[in-house]
Design brief:
- It contains 1 helix and 4 strands; from the N terminus they run H-E-E-E-E.
- It has about 90 residues and is mainly β.
- The chain folds into 2 domains: about 40 residues, no CATH class; about 30 residues, no CATH class.
């Protein structure tokens, strides 16, 4: 595919949007980054999905906030399935 109006030919198929238009320059730059930010690691795959940032999952268990995932930082196990409100 080529942007015939501008004469530009992107490097690969990943550089085109679904509507056939070329990626804007800022999207092309961001999509080639693998960096650390104040929010955490940042990297995207060819679809533009964030793949590097790791989320932490907490639950309130017996009135205390418990980290249940990822395992390397967990201080408890997940409570699943969650009991109904009438049994909490």
């Amino acid at each position: 595919m080529a942007d015939l109006a501008s004469g530009r030919y992107p490097d690969s198929e990943e550089e085109w949007l679904l509507d056939g238009s070329p990626l804007p320059p800022y999207r092309r730059t961001i999509s080639r980054r693998d960096i650390a930010t104040a929010f955490g690691e940042y990297a995207v795959d060819a679809r533009g999905f964030q793949i590097a940032h790791k989320m932490v999952l907490h639950q309130w268990q017996n009135g205390k906030k418990v980290t249940v995932w990822p395992a390397n930082v967990a201080d408890g196990k997940p409570s699943y399935p969650t009991p109904p409100w009438t049994k909490r």
